[in-house]
Amino acid sequence: MMVAMAGLFCLLTLSTCTEDLEITDPNRLSPDVFWRNATDAESGVTAIYASLPAIPAFGRIGVGLLLIHRSDEVDPFPQINVNDGGIFGATPDFPRLREPWQELYKQVSAANQVLGNVPDIDMDAQRKAQILGEAYFLRAHAYFYLVNQWGNIPLVLDEITEGVDQIFIGNSTPGQVFEAMINDLKQAQSSLPQTWPADQVGRASWGAATALLGKSYLYTQQWDNAAAEFKKVIDSGLYQLTDDYFDNFNEASTNNTESLFEVQYDGNTTGGWGGTGANVWRGQAWEADIAPRSFSSQQSVSVNQWVFDLFMAQQTVDGGEDPRAKATMVWNYPGAMMYQKTFTEAFSGPDLERIWVRKYLNFENETSLAPGDWAGDTNNWRLIRFADVLLMYAEALNESKGPSQDCLLYTSPSPRDRG
Q1: First CA to last CA across the chain, in angstroms?
Q2: CA distance 408 to 390
Q3: Residue range(s) of every CATH 1.25.40.390 domain in the chain
Q4: pLDDT at residue 287 is higher than 70
Q5: I need a surface site. Which of 71, 121, 382, 388 has the fewest CB within 10 A?
Q6: 360 contacts: CB under 8 Å, gap ≥ 6
Q7: 111-158 pLDDT, tens per residue?
Q8: Cβ contacts of residue 7 below 8 Å, gap of 6+?
């Protein structure tokens, strides 16, 4: 009996070794069965947007830790593996650098798949052009953050179809990356609509593509080209400054008249931590990184004194305090609140003398993590605002033609902000 069993095992082993075994993974769609129709094209472009609110990108790490904590305006309280970038202590294995790098390249990969496959789909020509425009914009947008944070990076402009060997490529210079971005944004600009229906809010538009094109020219010191693109946005009449400056940073006023492009959070509290996937958090999970540490599970940041001093030096036409100050910061002034507490209830000791972040904090909650998770809030991250366009236009004019009345016009606060 034992001999017979051994012989059978040998036969089975030889059989499996001499025949090719092909199994289709039912959980993955092959390109051979995808990219067939308009529905697939819509799913493809949605997958590009999916990376924007993911935790490693603009859901948390890419905003709170790699943008705000690393800015000159704030001073992070040290916490290992969280704000190492903000205190210039990051090493090559710092996980908070790896996470957004991976997520942004996921977005590039998804865009490359759309650009490589949607042109061959038989569908409405206008919608096809729009989808391709969205993909061009989102790829350029991802590369904007990659190149500005890492410098020399791999520039991948085609879908990976030949296996892993295709991804082992050398780095490109920032100039080469910006050149590719500018080409993408010109394509997006010519394909995207100026406005979308209300049920499509959040999609990339002509204004977003034009503004990012101008910004790309600005960053490469092509001053005249930058000014020309910003002027197109200004002259379009599509955007205007909000009556209340704080409307740009609260949950009730997302996608307002000043917004050109913002990350759309949906606050899916049933999701989980991680990057793009089946059910991950897609909320504003970085509030805990900027709220005062007594209202957060993180060490967070305080605002540097020089920022406060600049706000105090700016007065309204009537000699009053700049109203943008209290929309941006919280300090120990009469009536100051921090979430649901007065300033003096919230702080003690040295923290009473510190200046804290106000913008983007959801004061209807009791702490930065209410209702108790990392993704309950939907206070969108405004990536491009009309105010940005006005300031960048003034900068481009100043660099191109020197100081002028036009530069002052576009850098001065609007009358409604100045009281």
Answers
A1: 97
A2: 11
A3: 38-263
A4: yes
A5: 71
A6: 249, 284, 287, 290, 379, 381
A7: 999 999 999 999 999 999 999 999 999 999 999 999 999 999 999 999
A8: none
Provide the H-helix boundaries in 278-385. 287-290, 305-313, 324-328, 343-346
Question: Cis before residue 174, ω within 30 degrees of 0?
Answer: no
Tell me what percent of the residues of the chain surpass a pLDDT of 90: 64
pLDDT in tens, 190-216: 999 999 999 999 999 999 999 999 999
Torsion angles phi and psi, residue 79, rounded to 5: -150, 115
What backbone torsions phi and psi does residue 11 show, to the nearest 5 degrees? Answer: -65, -45
Q: Tell me, which fold does domain 38-263 have in CATH? A: 1.25.40
Whether 138 and 107 have beta carbons less than 8 Å apart is answered as yes
What would the DSSP string read from start to end of 377-399?
Answer: ----EEEEEHHHHHHHHHHHHHH
- Quote the mean pLDDT of the chain: 88
pLDDT at 15: 44
Judge whether 277 and 284 are in contact, CB under 8 Å.
no
Q: Six-digit token pair at 120? A: 């061959």
**For residues 122-145, b (16+ Cβ closer than 10 Å) or e, as one string?**
eeeeeebbbbbbbbbbbbbbbbbb
Provide the whole-model pTM. 0.89
Contact predicate 367/339, CB 8 Å: yes
- Of 110, 171, 154, 161, residue with least CA distance to 136: 110
Cβ atoms of 332 and 348 closer than 8 Å: no
Give the H or E element holding residue 329.
Answer: strand 329-330
Which of 241, 199, 244 has the alpha carbon at shortest distance from 390?
Answer: 241
Token duo for residue 367: 């702490």
Place of tokens 């472009």: 45
pLDDT in tens, 305-322: 999 999 999 988 899 999
pLDDT digits (tens, 9 = 90+) for 53-89: 998 999 988 888 888 888 889 998 887 777 677 777 7
Backbone angles phi, psi at 260, to 5 degrees: -100, -35
* H/E stretch holding 338: strand 337-338
Question: Between 404 and 12, whose confidence is greater?
Answer: 404
